[in-house]
Model the fold of this input.
Amino acid sequence: MTLHSEIAAVTDRVIANSRDSRAAYLALIEREREGGVDRPMLGCANLAHGYAGTDEDRDFMRPAKNMNVGIVTAYNDMLSAHATYYRYPEQMKVWAREAGITAQVAGGVPAMCDGVTQGYPGMELSLFSRDTIALSTAIALSHGMFEGAALLGICDKIVPGLLMGALRFGHLPMVMVPGGPMRSGLANKDKAAVRERYAEGKATREELLDAEIAAYHGKGTCTFYGTANSNQMMMEAMGLHVPGAAFANPGTKLRQELTRAAVHRLAEIGWDGDDYRPLGRCVDEKAIVNAAIVLLATGGSTNHLIHLPAIARCAGIVLDWEDFDRLSKTVPLLARVYPNGAADVNMFEDAGGPSFVIRELLKAGLLHGDVMTVAKDGMAAYGRKAEIEAEALVWREHGERSGDDAIVRTVDAPFSPEGGFRILQGNLGRACIKVSAVERDRWTIEAPARVFSDQAQVQEAFKAGELDRDVVVVVRHQGPRANGMPELHKLTPPLGVLQNRGFRVALVTDGRMSGASGKVPCAIHLSPEALGGGPIGKVRDGDIVRLDAEAGVLTVLVDPAEWDARELAPAPTPAEGTGRELFALMRHGASEAEAGASAMLAMAGF
Done:
């Protein structure tokens, strides 16, 4: 199928904007391949230290021609999605021996759970945990002991962080190894209903806790289509998984065989073979555009409007919100998964899942098929369903229709002819909005502002009945430089309740909203942020704010002369405690959201 002209045009724009930086990146990984630190050049004492921790593999590792894979793991048993990785390294070492290679745990990276920290001080460390993960990945791979890597991570900041660090070692072949979602518990819609009842004082804390435990009940990722599961969709479209690895449940034969296949595939794509596939070549402009396309086609998390540009910049690629906006007007919405629908990711997988979506997009010329992937058969392999047959891993072609067209649809009968993202611009700056779960009659909101400096103030005003009216809730000083840009997840229930009461409600913030945000229109990632002199700092209670997702407008209806004369609201004193003061350097050096909201990238000149 011929590539759609607008997909081609956006890709050409990305290539043109990235020309110099991508060339510099490719030169870097070529230098690292030819003259960087690797095992043949290490001294004997250095090698002895690297081999000392292993027993049965030591003699096989000594000849430098025998491939050694570094495992970078985000295991911990506090985070349900990453608890699944507990036994992975020892299993992977066995599977490595089957393939004639060896494997070592190169290092661990932190993996915090936004579900635990939402609404509390720890959430202000969340975004910068991504940079910390990237730096930790670089430390793990810095030893020169590895000819390839397996990256074990799944959740919100972990996958972007792993990739950001790993791409600086882009001369090595690498495979992303997910762990899969937990099995379905309490339906996401029912969980959200209990949250809203609790926000109104109609449910007790015990009832809420029972509902939350019934929803988040076991090992694996959460089952809604938030940032973590959007990660997995994008990794499939970038060709960095073994095909079909995204949503196989933990503890199943299919999950085990997909992980085994990942280790075996690393043995086949090493740099001494005839199928060398380095990460830095796999992650090119077309792969980055593919990730953006599937994110839009499935109504994925808005967090990736920060994460994907940051990943791209680590590979010398410049992606911005204009690219997302243009793609969104071209790419149809093919999936409805909570919060963009009633289904969870297990139902999505059963109905066809990522492979059905990818098959449909390829068929319509809406996805690049000519990208280097870790799979031997290229992107076409990601359009087939992974299954176990006679104890063996196989991939099957999909039928013409999905298993449930209320969840996944063909490209000729989409839920919407467009994706779910828009840029908003005006005298407040530049923001983005996810509209795939917002009813069309809510795409335009014009109402008086009520201004806050944190989400706790919003909750207090809600409980006091002060927001029972048409209102645009403005929450400022939530950007990366102010407090680390926490997700404002605690605002979802009260804003949802206000909308249910019939009021016309919207949120405007320089912070982030959860990947699970949905039905309330939210203008987020507003740039420049308040602390950087952004005009959101000029908004006053009662100002009329117009949010128009149809026209792409976000503006305050104030006389221009008065607006220009207004002073910015003073910034709050930086908070201390919970380690937040340790991240002051990252806050002070952070870039704007559209450039990835990263201090690490800004300091490195990306």
About this structure: Residues 5-183+218-396 form one domain. The mean pLDDT is 94. DSSP finds 25 helices and 14 strands in the chain. Residues 19-35 form the longest helix (17 residues).
